[in-house]
Amino acid sequence: MADIDKEKVAARLRERAQEIETRRKQIGAGENDQRDAELADYDQHPADQGSETFEQELDETTLAILDAEAKDVAEAQKRLEEGTYGTCIDGGEEIPAERLEAIPEALRCIEHQRIYDGQLRARGGPLL
Ligand SMILES: [Zn+2]
């Protein structure tokens, strides 16, 4: 790993892990109460229930994406410790610095990420 400031990357990965945890809690806890309150309102308006279901599905999708991101962050932290951070997990080539700058938990080069995303999509998994 060429020009990687391990301390800086470790700090960014910790930040990412915290962000993900915060967003998970927001979806998991606070918004459920809000949703129940809204549902009670909607009892009088059956036609509006479609959008409630949609919001719930959206939350579930978001949670699935957050789970996948949390896994990537944990994997990136592990690879940082092992000294393999910054190389593509599929092809072994170096991930461009600007990509790591934008997405510190990136495990793949753009090319292999595209292939991986395509396979996830085919299985109906979460999109990143
Ligand atoms: Zn690659």
Written account of the structure:
The protein has one domain: Four Helix Bundle (Hemerythrin (Met), subunit A) (Up-down Bundle). It is an all-alpha fold and 128 residues long. The structure holds zinc ion.
Overall helicity: over 70%
Indicate the proportion of strand residues. Answer: under 5%
CATH superfamily: DksA, coiled-coil domain
**N/C terminus separation:** 25 Å
**Helical segment count:** 4
Q: List cofactors, ions and other ligands.
A: zinc ion
Categorize the overall geometry. globular
| CATH class assignment | Mainly Alpha
Enter the CATH topology name.
Answer: Four Helix Bundle (Hemerythrin (Met), subunit A)
User: What is the domain total for the residues?
Assistant: 1
Named at the architecture level, the CATH assignment is Up-down Bundle
Average pLDDT works out at: 85
Give Rg in angstroms.
Answer: 19 Å
Oligomer: single chain
H and E string = HHHH
Q: Low-confidence spans: pLDDT under 50, at least 5 residues?
A: none
Summarize the biggest pleated sheet: none
> Strand tally, please?
0
Tell me the structural class.
mainly alpha
